[in-house]
Amino acid sequence: MRYSLRRAGMLTAGVVLLAGLLAGSVGISGSQASTSAAAPTWATYDLKAKTAHLTLISSYGSDTYNYNGGKAGHFTFTVPLGAKVVVTYSNQSSMMPHGAEVVPWTGVLPIALVPPPPAFAGAFSPNYRHGTRLGITQTFTFVANKAGKYLLICPVHNHVKFGHWGWFVVSKTATTASGVLS
Ligand SMILES: [Cu+2]
Q1: CB atoms within 10 A of CB 83
Q2: Has residue 142 got a pLDDT over 80?
Q3: What's the domain range around 7?
Q4: 51-74 pLDDT, tens per residue?
């Protein structure tokens, strides 16, 4: 049951991505129509409330070291500068716990056992050093109050080394939030 749901999710995500590319969009964002209720929308933005809602899933589609299906920098969230960011985080790995943390990009991947402190107050999943197990969904919130390029890393036991990281961009010019596989 779980396996077939995952396969369906992957397939639909691919279709949505393709549709986004054909439409000249930057990727999966906003409230694009989908043929399946199972397909997650990675990012939406409430302009009035200046709030970005992001869906972040570890081990999406395939176990284990990926975010939303992209590993080693192949997934990027972008939010407008000053946005309140609400992340709904879950882990679909049956093999191990994973976590999430937004940290500064220094030009070098942080592969030490102890992860760097978060780039923004509250920009990490609860218990992020030890991670979140399969079947648990958590929410964490922070304010993206400094423009720049950041890393989204899994702070659990050197997972960055195995590719469990992506990008988090706080943009002065973006008017919406997006989540893009590349
Ligand atoms: Cu991980």
Answers
A1: 25
A2: yes
A3: 2-32
A4: 999 999 999 998 899 999 999 999
For residue 99, the CA-to-ligand 1 centroid distance in Å is 6
Q: How many contiguous H segments (helices) and E segments (strands) does the chain have? A: 1, 10
CA 10 to centroid of ligand 1, rounded, Å: 19
Residues 14 and 94 in one domain: no
Side chain identity, residue 32: Q
**Secondary structure class of 50 (helix, strand, coil):** coil
In a shared domain, residues 64 and 148 = yes
Å from CA of 155 to ligand 1 middle = 7
Verify cis geometry, omega within 30 degrees of 0, for the bond prior to 64: yes
Centre of ligand 1 to C-alpha 98, Å, is: 4
CA of residue 49 to ligand 1 center, whole Å = 31
